[in-house]
Amino acid sequence: MKRKNLIFVCLMTLTASLYPSQTHAQSVFSYSGITYRVIKDANEASNYGTVAVTAPRDGFYEGTVTIPNAVKQSDDEYADAYKVVAIDDYAFKGSPALKKVVLPITIESIGTGAFEECGELTTVEIPYGSLLTHLGESVFAYTGLKNIKFPEGITELPRFTFRECRKLEQVLLPESLVKIGISAFIYCQSLKAIELPKGLREIDISAFAYCGLKRISLPDRVVSIPMMAFSGCLDLEEVALSPFTTTIKNGAFGQCYHLNKINKPETLINVDDGSFGVGCIYLPDCYSKYMSDYDIKMLNKQGDKYREKIEEDYQEFKKRMWR
User: Fold this and answer.
1) Could you tell me which of 99, 45, 100, 98 has the C-alpha nearest to residue 70?
2) How far is 91 from 60, CA to CA, in rounded Å?
3) pLDDT of 73-122, one tens digit each?
């Protein structure tokens, strides 16, 4: 027995001498100013382990952060290597001086609120050919983001994706997108136009509420306009509904004061009372019966004077809501 133990000790000593600098894996580590959380250890994977970018132990991320495709735990020759595949929930949240983030092609998932409340963040670069397929809720909410292009593979923008991104001007959506979630673009006042992909099937409640849109064209598969979908789009003038639209729900175009052109497909069989709301006084004749009773009464009674009142309301509402 003693001889066997001696042999075992000798083998262990020999192994240690062959690999004197082997670094043991840590569940969380920092390298080159970025903190990572180990998802799958290098010893458990065929080539690389996998990690997610996570919140730093102390402080915030700042300036420009360029995330690599892969990272080692240290400069040690034998340190474990990992592929960067995710960004954790709230990883960058509230970083006051963060201005730009460059994502690696290897990123597959961005967690809930990952960049939320980064007020100075204007740019997030997603490389061509990115493996990104999943976004959590409120990913870019309350940021200074100005434009972004999503890769193919993204199928849903979850609720509050761009909530109150008041500087957002351009979003390029992938053809793979099938759903835009609740209030995904709410209060994006600088968003004047957006092209929706042909494969889009669903726009959820308040998806574009209080946006700066001037016109919108809905793809064929979007057959129902939900509650408040475009409510408060004060500058919205023209809407092209899908030729297969069946339903417009309550408040879908509420407070769209300047809406004056909207088609009426033959398939449209259900328009809720209040779909357009008080103040929508420029609707085409085919929608006149859906104007509010109050608007009809005041137009008949006051005519141009009431139109002037609506314009004043529009200016006041815009000043209050688009501060």
Assistant:
1) 45
2) 9
3) 888 877 788 999 999 999 999 999 999 999 999 999 999 999 999 999 99
What distances in angstroms separate CA 219 from CA 111, 160, 202, 228, one per listed residue?
28, 22, 10, 18
Pairing of strands 134-135, 109-110: parallel
CA proximity to 150, closest of 175, 179, 172, 122:
172
Among residues 158, 253, 230, 146, the alpha carbon closest in space to that of 191 is found at 146
pLDDT at 277: 85
> Which tokens hold the place of 305?
């004077």
* Contact of 168 with 189, CB cutoff 8 Å: no
Of the two residues 16 and 288, the one the predictor is more confident about is 288
Q: What angle do CA 294, 298, 304 make, to 5 degrees?
A: 140
Helices and strands in the chain, H and E counts: 3, 21
DSSP output for 176-212: T--EE-TTTTTT-TT----PPPTT--EE-TTTTTT--
Task: Please compute the mean of the pLDDT values over residues 119-133 and round it to a whole number.
Answer: 97
Name the token pair of 162.
């761009």
| Residues linked to residue 50 through DSSP beta bridges, in sequence order | 40, 83
The answer to whether 227 and 204 have CB atoms below 8 angstroms apart is no
What pLDDT sits at residue 22? 39
